Fold each of these.
Amino acid sequence: MSQTTKPTPAGALTGSMRDFRVPGGADLLARVDGFYRWQDQRRQHGLWPFSRATDFGPRTEVTAADDRGIVMQGVNFASQDYLSLSSHPAIRETALEALDRYGVHSAGSPALVGNTTHSVALEKKIAEFLDMPEVVLYPTGWAAGYGVIRGLVRSADHIVMDALSHTCLQEGANAATRNIYQFRHLDLEHCRRWLSTIRAKDTENGIMVVTEGLFSMDSDTPDLAAMQALCHEFKATLMVDVAHDLGALGADGRGHIGVQKMLGKVDVVMGSFSKTFASNGGFVAVRNRAIKEYLRFYSPTTTFSNALSPMQAAVILKAFEIVESAEGAKLRDEMMANVLSLRSQLAAAGLETYGDPSAIVCVKMGSEGLARLVSRRLPEMGLLANLVEFPAVPKGQARFRMQVMAKHSPQNIADAVSIVSRARAEAEVELAELGAPAVAPERVAA
């Protein structure tokens, strides 16, 4: 039985967050009301599947509550813990040891006295892991993506970036320069045309080309060697975000940079610890000490932010140790076996997925209205999976991003596929009964 018995209004199935990104009006506080009315209409009809809270962290099975306080229990494919390290005994033990030794707080920027012996050792470990001489740590992965662009690019410079680059990279670009050029996703020829156009007019200023090792919405990857060669040709700098593949993919855990034999060959590498390494935080790996020191003092999200806590640094260091071990290889094998099983069972159930096998398995839905009706049913049936809709993905390409863990069981996977299949079938019937939604979000009644 659905927790929402009221008829679903058309306004709750239409519109997107982009509609409210630039609200009008002189009152900065009052003008957000339109967004809240639209959001709350979705919330009251069980169509706002965001801001859930779990009781015990990112386990494969969870108890969670939505932001109305409604509790669900079921299998969890919504958390980013690809190798299931967040509950690893050695990780917990390391966290407790660091807590006893250092306390809970770094109490300073890395440029001042926020570093610890663990954070210094972590910088060296990542440098060795990526075959890059120097590493700068950041408090979050978002801060690393934003900060490396904001730290290196100035207003007269240019940024050429994959159109599907993460928001932190887009926001860093917008803060750094107005000279931003997006190329079609993974389209090297389109990237070349932008570089050629820029260099035909400007040979004096810098160009940063931005891409990702693994794109989190489409689960695909660029040809990194070709991109680096293109950058060399046009005297541009390549920056690759490895947040989703580092540690989790490749025989040795070095992600697509390792798989494509590009270790030590990419100009700048940034990444996050929040997907595989059981912690918040991020890093930027560069080719020499001069770049590192410049970022340390001119990249605002590290210079003017507290450093990673001692416990975070210790946990990440231990996670790298596990990732490099035989146990890490086994966990990657287990994760990939789960990925392949999930994709295969989804296909057998008539459900399509995006991209190539990785811990990110995005299940195609199509219309936002259908996806929202499915999202209402999933927790009721016992599944947590993240709805992704416009503007995070193109309009009409809504999907569920299912994030696989090494410790998901065969039953977890079978249950998840069964739930998604049943929820979609029911939602299609309801959508047909409702007819085409026509109410614009701005017209939602107060």
Amino acid sequence: MTAPLSSSTLAPAPLRFGGLEIDVPVVLAPMAGITNTAFRRLCREYGGGLYVSEMITSRALVERNETTMRLIRHHESETTRSIQLYGVDPQTVAEAVRVIVAEDHADHIDLNFGCPVPKVTRKGGGAALPWKTGLFREIVEGAVQAAGDLPLTVKMRKGIDSDHLTYLEAGRIAEGAGVAAMALHARTAAEFYSGQADWSAIAKLKETITSVPVLGNGDIWSADDALRMVAETGCDGVVVGRGCLGRPWLFGDLAAAFRDPNGMVGERAKAMPGLGSVATAFLRHAQLLVEFFEDEGRGCRDVRKHVGWYFKGYPVGGDTRAALATASSLEEIEELLGTLDHTAPYPGEAAEGQRGRAGRPKRPSLPQGWLDSREMGLEARAELTEGEADTSGG
């Protein structure tokens, strides 16, 4: 059983990114195929914070790829619009930032230097890129300049692996470039999502970076985890990813916890939804996806990936789960949800804990010779740019 937090624990102040003030120091992490407008809207209905888009590829935005232009759209209810950009070419990233600013697509931009997915790192992007310090500096400096008054932040990992850590140097470079804040997922690319996040790295980054907020990311499965991270690391806020999968009400828990941080673990009021409430949230998610895609079939297909997350620990039989994972209309989903026992209570620990696939440590996929030097020649840069993906959303 986890120990209670100290009674002296204090909540961080609201996050301030440039001219923006985020009421609750909580950020929804960009997740490919998850954090589209539908999911962001659903989470907002439960709590406060900053809700970031799926990863958007800079080149695709500059070239006005149809899928990408749909992904950057925000609903009118999204009052602080946030877009995360990915790219490996300084000029293209800067141009994508200029497009966002000129066409008023967002109120905040984040740069992705944390993605560990092989199709990203093998092109030198995501968590692989900060190893090339000169390239990293050019991208961040160019993006900050292009953003003007729009707050621009960076999200990164500890490094490529335990022998190639980059986060402290990258943090100093980003701070010097004028970013509004930075976030650290306290794992290396090699760790992927396995094992336990190294919160001590967040504390080291916070000690190193003194002029802008530092946010922590990794293994926040509950509001108590978030408060513990702040207490242990001194970070200014938290970034929540897999912990909210199938649990949009976690953002309500987080808002309540940061407003009353001195409550004891297990005693603070938190959402404990019965099966009826979970079914209502699942249907709402499906409806929002249909609205987002403007296609009922596509929206119902997209919500299928969420079935296991929503009903984790609840008395929902395999046949019903399978039927929900193949439903093709809102009417069909509603009928299936109607067969559940809506009086079934919250199942406790069975519904808590890790969500999503943790995976295993793996050797990162990198461009040939990537680790041979911290710098890059012009020819290598050209090859990198040629290989940049032209699609968004991960």
Amino acid sequence: MPEADFIHPLLATVSDRDAVEELARKYGTPLYVYDGERLVSNLRRLDSALASAFSDYQICFALKANTNPHLLSLMTQSLPTLGADCSSPGELYIADQVGIEKGHRIYTGNYETTDELELALKAAGHLNLDDGMSLERMLKTGVPEEISFRLNPGFGSGSFPEIVTSGKEAKFGIQEEKIADVYRRAKENGVKRFGIQCMSGSGNLDPDYFVRLLTAILTCARKLESELGFTFSFISLGGGYGVPYNEGETPLNLDEMFSKLGETFRSFYDPSDGPSPQLIIEPGKIVIADSAFLLARVSGIKESYKTFVGLDAGMNTFLRPALYKTYHKIFKVGEPNAPHEIVADFTGGICENTDRLATDRPFPRVKEGDLVAVMDVGAYGFSMASHYNTRPRPAEVLLQNGDSRLIRRRETVEELFSHAEWNAS
């Protein structure tokens, strides 16, 4: 898609001042707003691209991106075969609660406790271990029928360094030169079936990178099969499929990308030779990121050494910009294409100088009480929100079929202390 043709999928929504003002009046701000149609469309588009290129595949949504039960239920209703990529006991719990089948869950932890491994063994169909230490702890718990290990191929890529999850600086995965010994140890202890997984980074928009990554995984897989005398049950390419957060970026062409990946897969596993391993992917952002915006109200404007636009949402509400220095589009509600008249930092009310949702951002002139929409917050938005400065987390709302529905109510200050024990006398 040419750069000039890309229009944000929720631009029309934030252009409707009256409708968005009504959301703010009814549910308050800050507020996470999800578009159900966009979420379902993203999921079906991804499934269609995979179905055109692979005969045996599984989509395991990365629950770390978003665990709202209503959204997960909407996704499973739209795609009943949807699986879950889990990385914590809590994510296994919610996968079970929304009816994602055990056989469609993959659990990838790191530096897990023995209790976590025992739970994962019971609750996940695919157990993916990060290192040999995890295998030794697992063997004390029990011997699974199937096991997978996370490969670190020595390189990785992401939209910024902090979310590169493979390579020499990454804490994840097993070096290729060491991974055969770990598989051998598992086989010697009675494991019957095997998978291999690699998650190398997040936010990638270069389709050729995924071809390079899959080639590295498949090269390693074929070598292991030859050396150890088994055939992999599944091969997971992980996630990392990006969305255009920044100005000037364009979406991945999923049909073209997975067509290339299918050709690459078949060059290693020729269908005429018999059944091939199942392909698993673990997407997060590309499914849900652009289906949501964070609605915030301007709480004040300060002219200092620079201009500050204060919002009722801050790093406690939406952490990514403060944590990673990420760029998220911000639109003035009702006037998203208004001319830029100011350059400002957008900040919340948190007692930290890093509390910025945007820095040096050209923007239309705003006044106290105006609404703004921070875009593409469906992934790692609410899921990374915190109670820092003892502030309750915001509400979440789903837009669908012309109606709005509260899918998580706003927390209260009293609830933040509901599990504390102290002598109040």
